[in-house]
Amino acid sequence: MTRIFITLVASLCALTAASASRIKDLTLIEGGRDNQLVGYGLVVGLAGDGDSNATTTLRSVANVLQRYGLTLNPSDIKAKNVAAVMLTADISAFLKPGARIDVTVASLGDAKSLQGGVLLQAPLLGADGRAYAVAQGPIAIGGFLGGAGGAGGATVQKNHPTVGQISSGAIVEREIPAQFVHDNTLRLLLQNPDFTSATRMVDAINAVYPAAASAPDSATVAVRLPAKFATREVAFISELGTIDVSPDTMARIVINERTGTIVATSTVHLSHVAIAHGSLTITVTSNVGVSQPNSFSNTGTTTTVPSTQTAVNEQKGGFTVINDPPSIERLAAALNALGVSTRDMMAIFQSLKRAGALQAELIIN
């Protein structure tokens, strides 16, 4: 599996290095970004899986009931069917009132599960404290929590039952102002800032609209609207987004130690280097035997006798030389020939970086 994985990564990187992408897939338009919303609410109908009468939950329930003319002391309320939750959502630019967005719901207290719950109407606020959407509806958690639990009981859990989502569960009430053309110029923001990519994008745009684009830095491309699009900004952005550009790829290796994932770009290069790999395995096994007295013995007793066995297994190591030209493909072939595991590959990449033989950024998560 390890050989197949790293060879496949190298092959895919080599195939996609020269491919072109549309400008709309590589950039964002300044002034047209998403915004984050957050809110607080109550989920009801949890069949005993809600908060265990937390003070904040009880006060929230009392406040909700007060809206309907019921004045109660929070201490008189039992709220095991209710859970306090936090709501999060992203609202895209240009969304008009009446549009719907998805909402993520997460338990704030000690509720066991949000399964089967319904969120009561709750406002979603922006960073400026203003309400831009209102959320409400049944929650889908994509899992479950079953069983009584506790002493003598058992529980069965699938996925994470205290976090769910309401698809299209919030209605936009206020549009976020957005202006994407300033002084007859719009600015494209590269999602992966790079001087080479910005230069290539400027060249590609100018080939279609002469002298229209310039790059003030590695993350921005400024484009002036041609005269024929003076009053048709949307049409210009539509045509601009379909222009193909071949972005440059940084030489980078990303290692995730938690999942054992290694991803390398095709632009990774190596100096002339030799790699040796070997491992030492020490196995210690403990067994407990039983010693019994002879037959018809009146004084002997049965006792346990521990025993320990130790075994040492050292695999042979050998140097593998990366031949000309050193590249990620040849490194992959060399590591496959050594038969190393994914975790061993991580150690080899770190050693190559320390030795100065790896011309790439090494990112370890």
What would a concise description of this structure say?
This protein is of the alpha+beta class.
Largest sheet: 6 strands, antiparallel, barrel
> What level of helicity do the residues show?
10-25%
Our estimate of the beta-strand percent is 35-45%
Shape: flat
Overall tally of domains:
3
Global structural class: alpha+beta
Strand order of the largest sheet: 3-4-5-10-7-6
Q: Roughly how many Å is the radius of gyration? A: 31 Å
Write the H/E string, N to C. Answer: HEHEEHEEEEEEEEHEEHEEEEEEEEHHEE
The separation of the N and C termini measures 22 Å
- Mean pLDDT comes to 80
Number of strands: 23
Unreliable spans: 1-18
Tally of helical segments? 7
Describe the structure.
This protein has 365 residues and is α+β, with helices and mostly antiparallel strands. The protein folds into three domains: 1-17 and 249-288 and 303-365, no CATH class; 35-172, no CATH class; 181-245. It is 22% helix and 36% strand. The chain is built from seven helices and 23 strands. It has helices at 2-16, 23-26, 55-67, 195-208, 233-241, 328-338, 342-355; strands spanning 21-22, 27-29, 35-44, 82-91, 100-107, 118-125, 131-138, 144-146, 156-158, 163-172, 185-190, 213-217, 220-224, 244-245, 252-256, 261-264, 269-270, 274-276, 280-291, 303-314, 319-321, 358-359, 361-364. It has a six-stranded antiparallel beta barrel. The chain has a four-stranded antiparallel sheet with strand order 2-11-13-12. The chain is flat, with a radius of gyration of 31 Å. The model is unreliable at 1-18 (pLDDT under 50).
